[in-house]
Amino acid sequence: MSADADYAPSTFDWVREQVERYESSGGTDGTTLRDTGYPVVVMTMRGGRSGKIRKVPVMRVEHGGDYVAIGSQGGAPADPHWVYNLRADPRITLQDSQQKTEMTARELDGDERAEWWERAVAAFPNYALYQQRTDRLIPVFLLSPAAH
Description:
Oligomer: single chain
Structural class: alpha+beta
Distance between the termini: 14 Å
CATH architecture: Roll
Number of strands: 7
Strand order of the largest sheet: 2-1-5-6-7-4-3
Strand content: 25-35%
CATH class: Mainly Beta
Radius of gyration: 14 Å
Mean pLDDT: 94
């Protein structure tokens, strides 16, 4: 991702504050979702319409060096904005604590989605509740290290 001059912080206070804590500490503070104790990672991506740099914390769900991002938005009727950004440009930077990795996102379906969904629910059980709250199928994105 390019310089932070293109960065447009989230309009959601908690998202903006979480990202600020995470990044200003170099990945040693703000690494859990608010005060839940559940670990988060920060995705940095390009806005699909604006072209601005966007940053969002998501639950940390990792397996074998790959991660998954769940577009739950707490079971809201619509996908979070970052889902549209990943669909427009799947190249992201993922920060997991102090480690930053260039990744590529791919939306999952079928058996592969089901397998990663199970891992996500095991890491953060509220995902199952969020799916019950909404009629939409919550998007699941596999985040894999980018090939160089």
